[in-house]
Design brief:
Elements lengths: L3 H26 L26 E8 L5 E3 L10 E6 L4 E4 L3 E3 L7 E9 L2 E10 L10 E3 L4 E2 L3 E6 L6 E5 L10 E2 L4 E3 L3 E8 L9 E7 L4 E4 L2 H9 L10 E5 L18 E4 L7 E2 L10 E5 L6 E2 L12 E4 L5 E2 L12 E4 L19 E4 L6 E4 L2 E4 L4 E4 L6 E4 L6 E2 L10 E5 L6 E2 L12 E4 L5 E2 L9 E5 L13 E6 L5 E2 L12 E4 L5 E2 L7 H6 L11
Parallel strand pairs: 2-7, 9-15, 16-17, 17-18, 18-20, 19-21, 21-23, 22-24, 24-25, 28-30, 29-31, 30-32, 32-34, 33-35, 35-36, 36-38, 37-39
Antiparallel strand pairs: 1-3, 3-4, 5-6, 6-7, 8-10, 10-13, 11-12, 11-14, 14-15, 26-27, 27-28
């Protein structure tokens, strides 16, 4: 006889099990997670591996959300954002089911949002603004982003003009920890430039995104120079505006004779895939048709005359790996207008060898510990010494008040410099500092200057000097036209201004008690003592 109670229990269990299974199926059919797009690639399951065994390597935000600007207090919106997963076999797929966190709209500013998916993370940024504040204008790049045949020197501006601009060239969103813009940016390969402008008391600007495509987009790659030369011999003649973009992946470049001058074809040479350690002496000597070059991050030194007489080279970027650049490495590069130095360069002798009729901009990576740049001008790290003023700059220039020293040859060869203002912060002026400046005919030397190197003002015709007894007039006596003896000077010794034959005007302060060997201040005492043989000084 069957136990009816047991049978009932069995029937109850069966019914319960069916109910549970049915509920589970119902729940799965109504999952609110959006399925991955049908692109033929499998979305990674929870264990980080697909059924085929490939592993999730990383995720990235490949398309930002439509909304990236928020007012204080607003909630995050991720509409149209695309998160892409990369797998161990190289395949990629857009994924869903990710989470976002770290958004705080309680205060204004740039906010970094974290995206998490299957143990991997990625970030994107949004801007939270305070409606009560003005907003800095989005930076403007000039020239505007498009396709160019050759390298470009890109400048950034914003409003107000004293806002700081930070930028990246690796496609990541810029923050205030990114590179601070200080002068034109040299872009020699296809690059995504992003920039943001900030100013205390104002909302941050929106991010500028500008994609610069350099070259025709058709890149031909070679692994030896023989193949490169064979290829170029079969190509038609071109111009500097339409160079052939060549990627050369080698481990050594020792002599330009290997290039046979590119068979007289204009070439942009991309060495980024090479493992070169040194760009040797004469490596590219007289490669007149080399319009641009990408130096790989493997290079640590550039030797003497490496780019000698590369007259078609217009700009060069020295990567962070380079620590040594020999003098004369760019001698004869008469079209070179822009140099960008990485964070490891510690010697600047090579800049003196660049022809005076070309250079307009010198940029330095903000993390360089020895040098800095501001508006394309080279300074030491703390901007207390002005090292190099670009030779082709035109017009007037006022030296910043932070500068205490003007370096040797700092303005030498600046043929278009028409006016210079030296602040009272400057105490020393190096040798040949202003030699070879034919358009700069006059200068006022403040009495803060206590040291002037030989031939500092070699080509001047008119010098006004606030007299300082610590300086000898010997190096510029024949060009001294005006002398002002400032307050605080009590005496002027014998022969101090002797043979200053161009001197026509002297202003003496009331603090002066004696001139020359006689306390008298008569004309005859001046001529016979401190101002002996100043033949143009008549009254």
């Amino acid at each position: 006889m069957k136990n009816t109670n047991t049978a009932k229990r069995h029937n109850f269990l069966v019914i319960a099990l069916v109910a549970i299974i049915g509920f589970s199926m119902f729940a799965c059919d109504n999952d609110t997670t959006t399925p991955p797009p049908d692109n033929g690639k499998t979305q990674t399951p929870d264990n980080g591996k697909t059924p085929g065994g490939k592993t999730l390597v990383s995720i990235s935000v490949t398309t930002d959300p439509t909304k990236t600007r928020y007012k204080i207090g607003e909630e995050l919106e991720t509409a149209d954002m695309v998160v892409t997963a990369t797998y161990s076999d190289g395949t990629t797929a857009a994924v869903t089911g990710y989470t976002v966190s770290d958004f705080d709209s309680a205060t204004a500013g740039q906010k970094e949002i974290t995206v998490r998916y299957e143990g991997k993370t990625a970030t994107f940024t949004v801007n939270v603004i305070d409606p009560e504040r003005e907003t800095v204008a989005k930076p403007v790049a000039s020239p505007a982003a498009e396709t160019f045949a050759t390298a470009q020197s890109v400048t950034l501006t914003t409003i107000p003009s004293d806002a700081k601009i930070y930028y990246t060239i690796d496609g990541t969103d810029p923050t205030t920890a990114s590179t601070l813009y200080s002068g034109a940016i040299n872009i020699s390969v296809t690059t995504t430039l992003k920039a943001i402008a900030v100013k205390d008391g104002m909302n941050n600007s929106d991010i500028l995104t500008a994609v610069y495509t350099i070259g025709s987009g058709d890149i031909t790659t070679f692994t030896n120079i023989y193949e490169l030369n064979t290829y170029l011999r079969g190509k038609p003649a071109n111009t500097a505006d339409t160079p052939y973009t060549i990627a050369l992946n080698v481990n050594d470049i020792s002599s330009a004779s290997q290039f046979i001058f590119f068979d007289n074809k204009y070439v942009y040479l991309d060495l980024s895939g090479s493992t070169i350690i040194t760009i040797n002496v004469n490596a590219f000597v007289q490669c007149y048709n080399l319009t641009g070059i990408t130096i790989p991050n493997s290079v640590t030194s550039i030797e003497q005359q490496a780019f000698y007489n590369c007259t078609g080279l217009t700009s060069v970027t020295i990567p962070d790996s380079v620590t040594s650049i020999d003098n004369g490495s760019f001698w004869g590069c008469t079209s070179l207008t822009s140099i960008t130095m990485g964070n490891s360069v510690t010697g600047i002798d090579f800049i003196y060898s660049i022809p005076s009729k070309s250079l307009t901009t010198i940029n330095v990576d903000a993390s360089n510990t020895k040098y800095s740049s501001d508006d394309g001008i080279l300074y030491n790290k703390n901007k207390t010494e002005l090292l190099i003023y670009p030779r082709e700059r035109k017009g007037a220039f006022t030296i910043p008040n932070s500068v205490t020293s003007i370096g040797q040859q700092a303005f030498s060869g600046c043929t278009n410099l028409t006016s210079i203002t030296i602040p009272n912060s400057v105490t020393s002026i190096g040798k040949y500092a202003f030699s070879g400046c034919p358009s700069l005919t006059s200068v006022t030397i403040p009495n803060s200057v206590t040291s002037i190197g030989d031939w500092a003002f070699n080509d001047f015709t008119s010098i006004t000097w606030y007299y300082n007894p610590a300086i000898s007039v010997v190096s510029f006596r024949d060009r001294l036209k005006t002398v002002i003896i400032p307050d605080g000077i009590t005496s002027i010794g014998n022969g101090v201004f002797r043979d200053c034959t161009s001197l026509t005007s002297v202003t003496i302060s009331n603090s002066v008690k004696s001139i020359g060997s006689n306390d008298s201040e008569s004309y005859y005492t001046l001529i016979g003592g401190a101002f002996q043989n100043c033949t143009s000084l008549t009254t």
